[in-house]
Amino acid sequence: MPITLTVPEGLLSSQAQAEVFSGLTDALLEVSELTGNAFMAANIAGSINVLPKEHVLAGGKMAAAAFVELKLPEIALTTPEAKSAFIKKATDIVEKAAEGRLKREHIWSNVVYAPEGAWGIGGRSYDNASLIEAIVGTGVAP
Q: What is the average per-residue pLDDT within 104-110?
């Protein structure tokens, strides 16, 4: 379940970046009601993109801004409440880590879904049923 965090250089220290990613991972597990699930925890991966300041824009101008993108299979976070909870938690986590260097309204989050059968882990393609089996432990985890 890849998470991509994009920030301008200087906004977050290396330690803060790691803390944000850990917090985003925990937030996803919590809103999915899967805290403690080894399969899910192991498969929340992602990247932190630190761009030159002049490459991060808001309103067409350079700005301190942060972007959180969460990619999931279409069976995950399907309710408006779950999506909203993740977005709020993600915003809170990034805002806190920025320690006042970032306006809350300059934190954007989105959730993107892969269609049925288009989710892959370790070279294995999962449909919704096989992914659910892996998550609950009745299937063979990759």
A: 96
Beta strands at 119-121 and 107-114: parallel, antiparallel or unpaired: unpaired
Q: For residue 142, tell me if it sits in a domain.
A: no
Q: Which two tokens stand for residue 46?
A: 């992602």
Count of structural domains, the chain = 1
The model's pTM: 0.88
C-alpha pair distances (Å), 136 with each of 19, 39, 40, 118: 27, 8, 9, 20
- Residue 93, classed as helix, strand or coil, is helix
d(CA 20, CA 5): 9
Domain that holds residue 80: 3-117
Residues in the chain, total: 142
For the record, the structure tokens of 65 come out as 């801004």
* In a domain? residue 34: yes
Contacts of 22 (CB under 8 A, 6+ apart): none
Is residue 135 very low, low, confident or very high in pLDDT (cuts 50, 70, 90)? confident
